[in-house]
Structure formats: C-alpha cells, structure tokens
Amino acid sequence: MFEWEVETNLIKRVPFACSVNSAFANAHGVEIPMAFTERYYEVNDTFMIDESKQLCIVIDGPIRKADDFWEYSVRLVDADYNAALDVDACQ
What we know:
Layout: E1 32-36, E2 46-49, E3 54-66, E4 69-77
Antiparallel strand pairs: 1-4, 2-3, 3-4
C-alpha cells in the first residue's frame, strides 16, 4: 500500500449506478456488491461514501455489465467490526 498527500479539491465523484441491496445493511465482514456508472476503482482502492463518510475497500476487479454499469465487490472499512453499511447513503 502507498500513501500520499492529495493537494487538490478536484477529487472525482463516481455516482452509483443503482442502490445497494438493503440485505447488506447489517451484514458484517462480508463482500458487498456495488455498481458504479464507470470503471474508476481497482483492487485495493479505498473510497468514501460522501453522505455517510464510510470507507470501502475494493476486493475484486470490476465486472462490466453494461457501458455505464460496473459492478464491484467491496468491504466496509471500520474500526468496529459490528459497524453496518448505511445503504440509504448508497443511492
């Protein structure tokens, strides 16, 4: 893993292609499927969900379902193993 300081306010926001299944709201330590409108993240990338400020790490490479639909397997990154994903923020 590498760490660097970002000196810009132009961080790209990649929108969700669809909502996250509500069954994953209380799932702890499992891989969560998320879909985005473009291929942007790669394995081991970490991103923040803007509304909930939760962090997720990409576990597997993206799967292209359509030109504007890329599915990722991610895990919630949190100090508390019992933390739950805020699926309402994943719209």
